[in-house]
Design a protein that fits this description.
The protein is mainly beta. The protein is built from one helix and eight strands; from the N terminus they run ββββαββββ. The strands form two sheets. A four-stranded antiparallel β-sheet has the order 1-2-3-4, with no helix packed on it. Strands 5, 6, 7 and 8 form a four-stranded antiparallel β-sheet that branches. A hairpin with a 4-residue loop joins strand 1 and strand 2.
């Protein structure tokens, strides 16, 4: 594969896009897109699964941020994508601290 600065993204040996990078102007969200057939064949050929871990935390910040604890929530979930293109989602996890 070859990196294409115009995209940006990755091209296969024939010059066709395989992994284009996608971003919305003014938004911090980003994505790396891939052709289904390419990913499916790659996972089969290498006996792999794609694992994604989604994690976030939220904390209430106050003027006294540097003093003491603050209400806090942490959440995560793991998912697997197999060569059959089916998503297997794990059990969501959540941790809380000092919630009122």
């Amino acid at each position: 594969m070859t990196f294409d600065m115009r995209g940006p993204g990755w091209l296969d040996t024939a010059g066709a896009p395989v992994f284009p990078h996608y971003e919305e102007p003014g938004d911090e969200s980003r994505a790396l897109l891939v052709r289904k057939t390419f990913l499916q064949n790659f996972l089969v050929e290498h006996s792999l699964e794609l694992v994604v871990w989604h994690w976030y935390e939220r904390m209430q910040l106050r003027d006294d941020y540097h003093q003491g604890k603050h209400p806090y929530v942490e959440s995560s979930v793991i998912a697997r994508l197999g060569a059959d293109m089916k998503i297997g989602q794990g059990t969501p996890q959540r941790a809380e601290r000092d919630l009122e």
